[in-house]
Amino acid sequence: EADIYQTPRYLVIGTGKKITLECSQTMGHDKMYWYQQDPGMELHLIHYSYGVNSTEKGDLSSESTVSRIRTEHFPLTLESARPSHTSQYLCASSEYGQGEAFFGQGTRLTVV
Amino acid sequence: QQQVKQSPQSLIVQKGGISIINCAYENTAFDYFPWYQQFPGKGPALLIAIRPDVSEKKEGRFTISFNKSAKQFSLHIMDSQPGDSATYFCAALYRDDKIIFGKGTRLHILP
Known about the structure:
The complex is a heterodimer of chains A (about 110) and B (about 110).
Chain A: E1 4-7, E2 10-13, E3 19-25, E4 31-37, E5 44-51, E6 54-57, E7 65-66, E8 76-78, E9 87-94, E10 101-103, E11 107-111
Parallel strand pairs in A: 2-11
Antiparallel strand pairs in A: 1-3, 3-8, 4-5, 4-9, 5-6, 7-8, 9-10, 9-11
Chain B: E1 4-7, E2 10-14, E3 19-25, E4 33-38, E5 45-50, E6 56-59, E7 62-67, E8 72-77, E9 86-92, E10 100-101, E11 105-110
Parallel strand pairs in B: 2-11
Antiparallel strand pairs in B: 1-3, 3-8, 4-5, 4-9, 6-7, 7-8, 9-10, 9-11
């Protein structure tokens, strides 16, 4: 049973607000990822981390930032939300030497 | 540059039929090829995976066929059921690098 949690599940927020999407995993995985996905569509990698204090930008340019101060926690922050940020954000984790990635249920963000 | 190309984008199959989704890759260094299944409102979950030293892997109604020389692999769903309706993603990765996903296939099984 995969234990990776994202909060909130749904968020509606006004333009210009700062938001942080939370992602936590209890599996001790070193590798963590953030994906942006429109419903049922392509997964776009926006950030990934190979361990504490390691963060890299993904293939899709994003105005968001991430941090990895603890192994289990990989929050994503938007300093000033815009309607173009409306999307679903999925967090995932995996272990070195193991190809399987475990995904959270996602946060559906709507910026009005 | 898209390293994993997936087709078709959408697929409609009658209940009891065979669903086939295809993927092609470019990087011959890839050594792990998983398929993920995603239901609406959920994150993707690993369905089945294969390594390039075998040509086929079967788990229940799901089979991966792998053609190393053609750099292609496919997912076959036998006796497709309405509960199989979901989005399917093929993927590939090399050792401990990041996962490369295909663009996804929306599968709908008609009851």
